[in-house]
Amino acid sequence: MSFLIVQNVNHTYFTAKQATKALENISFSIREGEFVSLLGPSGCGKTTMLSIISGLLQPTEGEVRIDGKAPDLKASSIGYMLQQDYLFPWKTIEENIFLGLKMKKQLNAESRKNALQLLHDIGLHGVEKQFPRQLSGGMRQRAALVRTLAVNPKILLLDEPFSALDFQTKLKLEDLVFKTLKQFHKTAVLVTHDIGEAISMSDRILLFAAKPGRLHKIFEVPEDLRRIRPFEARSKESYSILFNEIWKELESLENS
């Protein structure tokens, strides 16, 4: 059964002088617990699509349903993780990870305990009283992930969350996020321009074309890659085969 349904979505940005069509007739669905990546060239509407899924943006036409309901970012059902960690520098890590719970009036002894346990499980034991400036970029992103997961969202939206990190840290965080989402059986949508990241983390990849943004092709990631962590997936033959297939599709889009 489909958990997320995107149906006939079109979106146009209007200014005083012109109208720019960002998305054209987008339809797809995602099963509960599935990890799907939106991949494509710059300007293909990936982030616009993610904003519509989150409820931050209302589409010009069409609709989105998450577990049968219209998306509402204020509800605890949606978690959003961005390129920057956006931790408040004047608050401790502990205070930062409690923010979502506090805003949603869910902060109590049990939720506080669960958030701190998740912080420990994700490899950040002992940093509770430290401030963001005392942590590395990768550690701050891990703290941001804990803050996002603390409210127990049904779906996690990831907007290039690793793009500002060095390559080694990026690979480690890919593994960590993959493991964490599988452990908690979370549905996730990742926006990325990195083919390798999309293949190694996803169950399916939705390739978008640009001007206007439209769904060009859907790729199924082989089962042998979906079962193992992203770092290991990158060394498999099926990874290289799919990488080359997607690369050729992207080239054909750029040349068309």
TrEMBL record:
Example GO molecular function: ATP binding
Pfam name, any one: ABC_tran
Answer whether the UniProt record assigns the keyword Nucleus to this protein.
Answer: no
**What range(s) does the ABC transporter domain occupy?**
4-231
Q: List UniProt keywords, sorted A-Z.
A: ATP-binding, Nucleotide-binding, Transport
Q: Which PANTHER family has this protein been placed in?
A: ABC TRANSPORTER ATP-BINDING PROTEIN, TAURINE IMPORT ATP-BINDING PROTEIN-RELATED
From the Swiss-Prot or TrEMBL record, give the protein name. ABC transporter ATP-binding protein YtlC
Species per Swiss-Prot/TrEMBL record: Weizmannia acidilactici
Give the gene name: ytlC
